[in-house]
Amino acid sequence: PDAPSPAVAELTFGLIFYLDFFNFEHFWRPLVFLENYHPASLWKNNWLIGHTWSLAAEEQFYIIISILFLIFKNKNTPRKGLLVSFLSMFILASLFRGGYMIFDNIPVYFKGSVYRSFETVMDSFAIGGLIALFTIEKLKNHIVISYFRNKIFLLIILIFFLQFLNSPFIREIFGLKVRFIYNTIGLPVIYIVIGVLLVLSVSAQRNTFLYKVLNSKVLSFIGLISYSLYLWQQVWLYNWEIPLIVKLLGIFISALVSYYLIERPSLKFRNKLLLKYKG
Known about the structure:
Blueprint: H1 6-18, H2 24-31, H3 47-50, H4 53-72, H5 78-102, H6 108-111, H7 118-134, H8 136-139, H9 143-147, H10 152-164, H11 168-174, H12 176-202, H13 209-214, H14 217-224, H15 226-236, H16 244-278
């Protein structure tokens, strides 16, 4: 009873074949976590699984981090090695994004996958790694975190302002130079600000408005099924000729079914394996 239900998977693949959406040229990439190296210009019937690029980048990060831990585990200062690695990833990502804009003789699988390929998004993962290394307990009392504790609204405005630099409206006025600034400076700043917001949210006092909002029953439940919501939103937001409210309900209902019939049983099955392995 704790194993994932095969009927759900069979129904899903049957529906995909029936709607003539299956194309092996596209579907093999998510299976090996390479969808983030699939330029949108080469998409055909790829809408249903195109969003798995973020899962691919995430898995690539886990693989690289595992390798780094193996490399540094026997060193005298493993933490220092990881710190240098994360900082290097943070800097190199900006160089890759900027370089892909300057140089033309770059394969389409790399140049056409900016903002999805691992080398162009690894600074966002590096921020999480740096937070983990320094720990929330140490960071929450840092002078920078303390300064912005009551200025969360300003941080959110800064994110929207920097993101606006990459808007079509700004590019039409100032050209691609603004996008170059966004790629090399804007995005790293956004990731740092998001990291600060993350620390602020996790270390928020129980009596603060931020803590109460983030720990409300509604947001907690949405967080619980967020993975399933993410997977199903792409399917329902396809250009089906149905009302938007039906699409939103479809996303939510599909996520609930997926969470309770597949995700929870899979997690229980995984936990049993882990307990057996540890035992």
